[in-house]
Amino acid sequence: MNPYLSEKARGEIPRFLKWLRNAGLAFCVFCSFGGLYTLCLDLQAKDTSHVGGYVLWIVVGAVPLARFARGEARRYHARTIARRLESYSGPEVPLRWLYNSVGMDAKDLAWYFENGYFANLSLDLDQKVVRKRTVPRHDPKRG
Length: 143
Description:
This protein is mainly alpha-helical. Helices cover 62% and strands 8% of the residues. The chain has five helices and three strands; from the N terminus they run αααβααββ. The chain has helices at residues 7-10, 15-44, 51-87, 95-102, 106-114; strands at residues 92-94, 121-124, 129-132. A three-stranded antiparallel beta sheet has the order 1-3-2. A hairpin with a 4-residue loop joins strand 2 (121-124) and strand 3 (129-132). The longest helix is centred in the middle third of the chain and has 37 residues, at 51-87. The two termini are 26 Å apart.
């Protein structure tokens, strides 16, 4: 795994929580499509007495799905940035090179750094570089 990604960017959660999240997402899909389906049936029958309830179920299902998709998109972009940083050979990565390679500006990149998506990296906007921190590896010969 990429050494520059934090646990937040990796999306690592225990297996039980992953199962629970997936079950919750399946329930949200069920709520959204079930609400939409029954809303369409009622509108075809020209019955508008329960429209508010069906719209509520659509929203109850759609909001968590949208929030989850947004988080997944952020993790995807963080992984893309980390891969580009890992491919650069030097200890300091020029921001201009990073802007061009990932298609983001300074504000977008700074957001990922401020919100804890990266480990072992520091963003210096004054000098326009990203510094890679060297992580000491355990040497069994030293005890």
